[in-house]
Amino acid sequence: MHTESGESSSSKRYATSEDWPKFQHVIVRLYVEENKTLEEVRQYMEEEHDFTATISMYKRQLASWNAFKNLRFDEVLQILRLKRQREAEHNKGSVFFVRDRKVEFDSLQIYISRNPSLYAKLESGEEPHSDAVRDVSCRTPAPLEPPSDASEPYKRAQEKAPAVMPKPTDELHEELIQSLQTYMSHGFESGAWVRSGSHYWSSRGHRGPAELLKSLLDRCMTAALSVGRQVEPASIRHALDAPFSLLIRVFKNPPPDMIPRILCIAARLESIGRKEIQGILLQFCSDLARALYGRGHALSNFWQTLFDVPAAETNRAIVVVLTHCVSEFEGRLGVSHSLSTEVYLLYFDAVERQNDPKVQAENLDSRLSKLEEQNIDPFVLATLKFEHALAACKSDLADGQLDRADDVLAQVDATALSPRDNSFRCVWLGYVRWMKGDITAAEKAYKDSVQAAKLTGSRDCVCEALFQLETFYLHRQEPLRAEGIRAERLNTLRRLGAITWTDRDGSLGKDPDNDSMVTIIHIGSDASSEVWDPSAATIMIEHHDLFNEVSTGV
């Protein structure tokens, strides 16, 4: 049984109720003002003040002192209420404070993005807790003035400042949301999107554009995972030619979930370190919308505004838009509608998947409790339940409960899942069983993942499943078997057309099968290869390393 850091020695004297008040100002300063983690605070207090306490004890005391570093739900709800009131009455900017501590705009946006129900509570007029009303205040920011001792160079720089300054990020966010709402209103009210059973589809093509969109975005991810970072931008752009040509067809007849689906992929591209491909995708969407619809169209305005957001702020803007997408679809169709749930799953994939697994499981459990199962597509419902099971599995892994992690995935009804989701389930089963030391069962699960992927009809999905099996063999130090899987994977990549792949030297060459330009990616022929790039398997490796740290006490 693993104990908390600081609890392993019975000889230590732990802080008593009389000790805490003596060091309250130091602890609060370290945790809140200097933004240290609880573990850093614990270590500092033990080394510098001979003050010993567990993490749990620190949590209880900080709560009793009302010393919260993170925002709370009712506080953010009160901030949103005050912001709306001030904008309606005075049209003034606002700076918000919680317990006299300034709320940073980034922290506020991140919290809102992770709690989309905030806007629903705000619209319903729900009152925050009285403590939040008391603790939250706001002020009008002071106007910026030049320094009193402004020098001539400063004055000349001010005179030469451009007449048109870049728009503030929050203003760009407002334009994004306005364009999104205008575009969606037109889609639903003009008949461009029509209802069919428990779904909404494009009026022309029905399911076709939506399925095509999923396929081409899979292709973008395959390109991102297959093209080396050292490859020239022109080669990357060439790798995207095939999916981008399909994207033109989708933009001409966009399905209702086009924006959230593209933004989910854009967020995933950044999460795997391929921001340059994210930029290419967003620029293409902006250029394409303008070419098809003209500059004044809501869809053109949306993509152009998103492309205008500074690169460092792009992911935050994507989170803001995805949050509003969830609210928009729920408001128009209801929480239980299949499309609302699919959009929530996209939001979950891009945003909430970064949260602690326990938080993920709680959010998904809350979502499931709101659904009327008879009104939702069985595959969509099965996907939501699978995500809940996967979050529980990750939580069990973090707690070292391997048998429980195995059981929660094994009990998922695989027949209710799409082949793609079942392939992903088998990958995680393989990983869990590998951690348990059941190598035979792990290998079978990875192979089952490949078989499930082949049922999807998607070569992109097959490439991913083969990559996971290859990774398993590499870590098992079975280079010959890994090389055989790698050969199968690269042959599949070749058949994808314009997708590039690369070798160690990164040189460009011709694919003998289709005479297209290719770059060959060398994954490595043994487990110790220095050029091995884990890419898609990073999440597995992180969990593997974490498990080893917990097991060995490192």
UniProtKB/TrEMBL annotation:
It holds the Pfam family Clr5. Residues 123-168 are annotated as: Disordered. Residues 123-137 have a biased composition (Basic and acidic residues). Residues 17-69 form the Clr5 domain. InterPro entries: Clr5_dom (IPR025676). It comes from the Eukaryota. This is Clr5 domain-containing protein.
